[in-house]
Model the fold of this input.
Amino acid sequence: MTDTIYVLNGPNLNLLGMREPEIYGSDTLDDIAGMLEDRARELGVAVDVRQTNHEGHLVDWLHEAQAEGAKAVLLNAGAYTHTSIALLDAIRAVRTPVIEVHLSDPKTREPFRHLSYVGMAAVQTVEGLGARSYIVALEAAAAL
Ligand code: DQA
Done:
């Protein structure tokens, strides 16, 4: 059976492409999903790319990733990265490895972005590479 890697995206990432392109680039989330599907095929894995603006959906999907036997989760939790103890607890609660992803490099931005609850529990963080952050994270997940 082909391994599946969940790619979970949080708030405002549905607006990629038009949202602050000077920070996040001009690729839409659909563009990124297409790139991930192409690379996943080459790596012999499958991706399940999702986006929500709701914190609890991300928690539910982390639980689902474990229940469905996903190989790993790539998680760009958007601003919930910096606020959500619920996501920290959810990542700690599941055995599925989670790789934190960001298009920008939050550590070089406003001080309120320097704290990452997701990063406290993730096995790895890939950030600051624009859309390529997702590809590098996918390669790392496929190699786990
Ligand atoms: C982001 C960085 C976060 O600080 C921000 O709230 C986002 C996007 C990124 O991909 O660079 O929504 O996660």
Notes: Helices lie at 21-24, 29-43, 55-67, 85-93, 117-121, 132-142. Residues 12, 76, 78-79, 81, 102-104, 106, 113 surround DQA (CB under 6 Å). The CA atoms of residues 75 and 113 lie 16 Å apart.
